[in-house]
Specification:
By secondary structure, this protein is α/β, with parallel strands linked by helices. The protein is built from ten helices and 19 strands. The strands form five sheets. Strands 3, 6, 7, 10, 11, 18 and 19 form a seven-stranded mixed β-sheet that branches. A six-stranded parallel β-sheet has the order 14-13-12-15-16-17, with helices on both faces. Strands 1-2 form a two-stranded antiparallel sheet. Helix 3 packs across helix 4 and helix 6 runs parallel beside helix 7. Bound molecules: zinc ion (2 copies). The site of one zinc ion has 8 residues, from helix 2.
Amino acid sequence: MRSGETDCPMMRGARLHGVGDLRVGDLPRPVPGPGEVLLKVAAVGVCGSDVHYYKEGRIGEQVVRDPLVLGHEFSAWVAETGDGVEGLEIGQFVAADPAVPCGRCECCVEGNPNLCPDVLFCGTPPVRGVFSEYVTLPAENCFLLPDGFGAAAGALLEPLGIGMYTVDLAGMQAGHTVAVLGAGPIGLLTAAAARAAGASEVYMTEPLEYRRKFALEYVADVALDPYQEDVVGEILRLTGGRGVDVSFDAAGGAETPNEAAGVTRRGGQMVIVGIPSDDVMALRTFTPRSKGLTIRLVRRMKHTYPRSIRLVKTGMISLEPLATHTYPLERVAEAFELVGAYGDGVIKAIIEIATEPPIG
Ligand SMILES: [Zn+2]
Ligand SMILES: [Zn+2]
């Protein structure tokens, strides 16, 4: 131990040490630098990407080499403000965008911080994530939550942001019909954002029965099983042969891009938000080419938090139903196992880290 570290305040945190090896222990508490705030974490959502790191130790070229705190979907209280921070006060409850773009590159200057090649992202190696009692972030990453906004809902604003931006890319209009392939958290939240944007009919497909049931209760008019039904034929039939205006592939399956193309109307939009686990998208071109589809790929999100917060505040989108399971930090590995196994009807597992704001 280096001199000076002995009296540094500690905190509890979970670090991934290797494949399937998630350990909760004491870690040094971070100190906010100029323009940063120290956040006392309330709730963190377990994301599919966290589980990928847990099971495989990597996502593509992003490899966990040293013990790493994962996690990026969270709500928190402001616990301390660094030099020069204005407009935030200790005790305020916020949701925080886990991405810190450089602000100077061509993409950032053009207003596309989600494309910044130098972005620092919580819980992506080597950047420390938020399965811990405290985290530091720039003040501008924090978005005040209105009174009564729940901690789990605050954490779910991050995946909702992906759904919101996915819908932004589709150029949706009120009355459009949509298909969403995949009823995991991102598919469900994309469908919810599409509803809020004025979708008149929402068709979903999902192989897991409990998720089809959830989708029907939460947002979908129809939820089809792609393993048992001809989903393309069925959605075409339900739309009078025309197809939907917009399709979203939120599954990243081997066939879902072709299904998305198959259910979309001529001249329609198709947006790919699901990430194939083998990094391959095998899209046959005849259908999308002959229909003249516009195909877009989603890279994270931008400028979504204030809109998402308003939609939740006004009741146009409800997030609480997705938080099906809650665990304390000490049992974080159990939550990862549950999510990885699609066990017990899980949609989103939430790690509840603190229930009280900081004193001060
Ligand atoms: Zn996530
Ligand atoms: Zn940048």
